[in-house]
Design a protein that fits this description.
With 346 residues, the protein is an alpha/beta fold. It is 41% helix and 16% strand. The N and C termini lie far apart (53 Å). Bound molecules: nicotinamide-adenine-dinucleotide and 2'deoxy-thymidine-5'-diphospho-alpha-D-glucose.
């Protein structure tokens, strides 16, 4: 890609999107348009440090709105689609908005991309959850079938499948990323790790679902951004790429790491009623992406250290979130569960 390109980033006010915009502005002389609806998870505080950069423009809008999407797509040479409802627990409460954004929103973007005069790349952010959960030692490759098990994952699979279909049918320049569980700065504290860290900092309980034995692969968000940068510039059109850090750990171990790093007692851990249909383990091979020259720079300890330190040092960022709509959500999701929870016994 040459200088003065325009990249349309959707969902750029969220966790990964905001880190990715910062990454692009630091490395390239591109113009960035951030199209974000500002749902409860979208937060302009995530981009305060770049909001006055003349190369950056924020547009509040919905990816389901064909008029705004078409107008912006006509200016773009590339699009990176992060926009989504991203929390599995909320999809279990009410899946409608997940289908709307992940499936219909992707369709609106693809339709507009089809007509866009100078678009040469459509990078779509999918998820490892499209494969469903892995049993035993299974490690998914890009050839494995889709077996999504939560409403969130099924909606993500629907969005991704449309991308492939538009690539095949209309020759759109589609590249798909399937990332693992990201951690790092600016993650909304409904997700396990920022929730655990911020609760621990306030001496509040860490609610572990079930027996805490489910396994996730923790990918530091900067490593993810480097992988997406590579796919934006060198991913093969029509291909999907797993992005895995190989940092697989059970939830209990992660909670213990956080408490050790913050010098807080293990007694803060509480076992609560499990998530329905809880995926046991996600595990993927990233060999295909590694062949393009990517490898993660952060192992589990380094990723956790940087993440825990960021929340410890940015209390003002998360306290503002936790005082709003979040309180109601937390009570609804955890009030009863914590009242009936079981203690941790080491
Ligand atoms: P997030 O919830 O922090 O951010 C999502 C952003 O999308 C928010 O800013 C929100 O306002 C915006 N948005 C939602 N609906 C929209 C709509 N209709 N129109 C425009 N903007 C809308 O999510 P995240 O964790 O940053 O995830 C980003 C993407 O990466 C998502 O597609 C998610 O499925 C995918 N993903 C996330 C992870 C992870 O671990 N967080 C892992 C794999 C894949
Ligand atoms: O793997 C990629 C996916 O990772 C992304 O596609 C999703 O957008 C993202 O939200 C994330 O999904 P998870 O369901 O894995 O993330 P979450 O942080 O919600 O949960 C991580 C693990 O921790 C999971 O096994 C459930 C457990 N958990 C979660 C919460 C919120 C708890 O034990 N207690 C909790 O309070």
């Amino acid at each position: 890609m040459t200088a003065s390109r325009t990249v349309l980033v959707t969902g750029g006010a969220g966790f990964i999107g905001s880190n990715f915009i910062r990454h692009l502005l630091a490395r390239y002389d591109y113009h960035i348009i951030n199209l974000d609806k500002l749902t409860y998870a979208g937060n302009l505080d995530n981009l305060r440090d770049v909001e006055d950069d003349p190369r950056y423009r924020f547009v509040q809008g919905d990816v389901c709105d064909a008029a705004v999407v078409t107008e912006l797509m006509n200016e773009a040479s590339a699009v990176v689609n992060f926009a989504a409802e991203s929390h599995v627990d909320r999809s279990i409460e009410d899946a409608g908005v997940f289908i709307q954004t992940q499936v219909y929103g992707a369709f609106v973007l693809l339709e507009a991309a089809r007509q866009a005069p100078s678009l040469d790349r459509f990078l779509h952010i999918s998820t490892d959850e499209v494969y469903g959960h892995s049993i035993g030692d299974q490690r998914f490759t890009e050839e494995d079938p889709f077996r999504p098990r939560s409403p969130y994952a099924a909606a993500k699979a629907g969005g991704e499948l449309q991308c492939h279909a538009f690539g095949e049918t209309y020759g759109l320049p589609i590249v798909v990323a399937r990332p693992a569980n990201n951690i790092g700065p600016y993650q909304y504290p409904e997700k396990a790790i920022p929730l655990f860290v911020t609760n621990a900092l306030d001496d509040e309980p860490l609610p572990l679902y079930g027996e805490g034995l489910q396994v996730r692969d923790r990918l530091f968000v900067d490593d993810h951004c480097e992988a997406l940068d590579l796919l934006l510039h060198s991913g093969e059109i029509g291909e999907a790429y797993n992005i895995s850090a190989g940092n697989e750990r059970a939830n209990t171990e992660v909670a213990e790491t956080i408490l050790e790093m913050l010098e807080k007692p293990k007694s803060l851990i509480r076992f609560v009623e499990d998530r329905p249909g809880h995926d046991q383990r996600y595990a993927m091979s990233s060999r295909k992406l590694e062949a393009l020259g990517w490898s993660p720079r952060h192992d589990y300890e380094a990723a956790m250290e940087k993440t825990v330190a960021w929340y410890r040092d940015h209390r003002e960022w998360w306290e503002k979130i936790k005082s709003g709509e979040y309180r109601e959500y937390y009570e609804r999701m955890y009030g009863q569960r914590l009242a009936e929870s079981k203690p941790f016994e080491s």
